[in-house]
Amino acid sequence: MDARARRIADNESRFREINERLRSDLRALPEDPEPVDFVCECGRVECAESVKLSLDEYEAIRASSLEFFVVPGHQSPDVEDVVDINERYARVRKHPDAADHVRATDPRR
Amino acid sequence: MPDAYALLDALFRHAPMGLAFWDADLRYGRINAALAEMNGLAPEEHIGRRTTEVLGEELGERVDDMLRRVLESGRPAVDADITGSTAAAPGEERQWLASYYPVPDEEGRLLGVAGLVLEVTRERSARRAAQTATALLDAIFSAAPVGVAFWDLDLRYRRVNPALAELNGLRVEEHLGRMPSELLGGLGESIEAVLREVASGGEAVVDRQIDGELRGVAVHRQLTAFPVTGVDGGLVGVAGVIRDVAEQHEAEAERARLLRQAFSSRAQAEAAQVRAEAAREEAEAARRRTEFLFDAGARLAAVTTDYEGTLREVARVAVPAIADWCTFTLADAPDRLRNVAVAAADAELEALARELVERYPTRADAPTGAAVAIRTGESRLIEDVPEELLTGAAQDEEQLAFLRRMAPRSAITVPLNAGRRTIGALTLVTAESRRRYGPDDLRLAEILAARAALAVENARLYEERSHIARTLQRSLLPPALPDVPGLELAARYRAAGDENEVGGDFYDVFRGRGDFWTLLIGDVAGKGPEAAAVTALTRHTLRALTLRGAGARECLELLNDALLNEESVAGRFCTVLYIRACAEAAGGMTLTLATGGHLPPRVLRADGALGRLDLRGSIVGGLRTPVFDEVDAHLAPGDTLVMFTDGATELRGRDPGDGERLLDELLAEHAGAAPAELAEAIERRVVELQDGEPRDDIAVLIARPVT
Predict the structure, then answer these.
(1) Which of B223 and B569 is assigned the larger pLDDT?
(2) Is B365 helix (H, G, I), strand (E, B) or coil?
């Protein structure tokens, strides 16, 4: 994994931690079918966007340590594959060389 | 058939009611134990006494009145309610139900009155309590601001208050006998589920949230239900209190919505902080790189000849700014590499690094590191230094142990390319800091290496040019002043500015044809190779002309022609002071002088008087028809002739006149000094007056006749 791939993976892992804290806070509230504004987990320093996800969508992505979600267009094809995309978000899966790193930083592991 | 008396005795003894017989005087004739106990006295304490004596005045008189009316009327008094307190239990209000019957004899004459008395105090009290509870329940049902209902065991409404009826949008009577699900649909089913839970569990359910729809409208209610048991303890139904919590639900939903927004905003803020930190780190790294490049660039730009020292300085500032360990390796020849700079972030690491390069000099054929960069001319970034790299690089176990102790984490090797040649390599290594190099670091290293290579190459060129200049300069001055009989000579020469440029000043002393000697001093306009060419032409032309027997003025005239006609020096001119010196038999010296625009020499007489030998002469090489005066002068023994170029009088920041005055003052101060001492004093004073950096070349030639 080169430095760029590692930096992107680091950023995505940090934003995953932030989103996991948000998810944990939401558990204390009554369930709401409305989508939640999660933090875009892309590796761009200049990104300030959020991604609307239902809790079911969020949980589906979080089921894998290797998957993240980003605003469509914020994916980095050289370090991750897009496994699903719609107008709200792109679901990306890290390349194998970053797998150990993002797995080790997964708060659910 | 039992005897009547026996039957009466049995009744009096066992009947669960009070029985008594009063005689015609209304005194107790007989009383059973039950009534005596009601009255609080033993049966025998009643016999022969009147009711007022037994029950007290107030209650006794009322009973006595009733007995009297029965006795007088002959008619019974049935189920009379009597309320009061007995003398035996004053203040305790009790209720009795009494019936009094006249008792006649066989002839119809009244013998007395018989009474049956039941105490009903407890039953009456219970009835009143029940009436009160019912009234209270009615009040609660009708006035409660919340819905209240009672369901029987079939979960059918048995009682509903107006508030619940309104909540459900129905009349009270429309509820009765119906189940919640029949009236309220899904909402009712949710209510029934709670009621069943209470009925089956026997435990109250408190504040259970019931959400649903009623006639298409979302409703949010809170139900507290509890079991209702009968007097026998058996479950008779379920009661419940229902509140409409739509507003509360709305408020909670709004609170939850706001909290969700707040949580999301906080997450966005945290993310912004993370990204800001990353941006700040990137900016900081860029700033450090820029600062480092600026610093290193300034050092490299300032390098003249000591490029190895400069590379050591650059290596020093590279740690820890961009590396934990930095080396510069130069290729003196393709097969001969030399580590000229080693620096590390801490003393221990530096000691290790130095020991490593001393004990294991970089081999030109090494499979890794600087040698590869020098051989290939290509950079290499190793983000993570693998163990195999160390084992591959080590020549033996000891070197491997060295490398392992240094624990390199990440490394960059970049060639120092000068044009098409690779003259060395820069190596950057991180160790203790555990920093990992990336492409940005590689670019930085390549910029640094390019500047270092340029500095090294420039320094080498500068050194080469300086060598040429020094060699050329030496060729333009006499290697040493000749020994001239009867004349003590001294000279000083100091080139101004960079040492890689040949100066334009010159002097010379040589023997002429015959017994005279020629003293020359001159100044060619400009510096560098072209000036050197004029100097050489001037000096050697004058030598040749002198040896051919030309006089002082003739020499300058012919030199003027030569300079004007020589294309390679066209446009160049010079000043020259030409002096022919001939020793006199009595000591002293006869001088014949001609000047080509040069500064007049000074004569410092033996007695300390200072004079100047003024004569006229055009600049040499400047005019087609120049004028050169020729004059004679005499130097007595001990007199000192001082010749100099304008570098000795034209001082930075001062008028030329000031410079000549200062020179004259100095000469006056040094009257009697030896020529060498005087020459050195002149140079020192001129240098000091210009803060160590004379603006022009300085040439001084001094001659003194000696006996």
Answers:
(1) B223
(2) coil
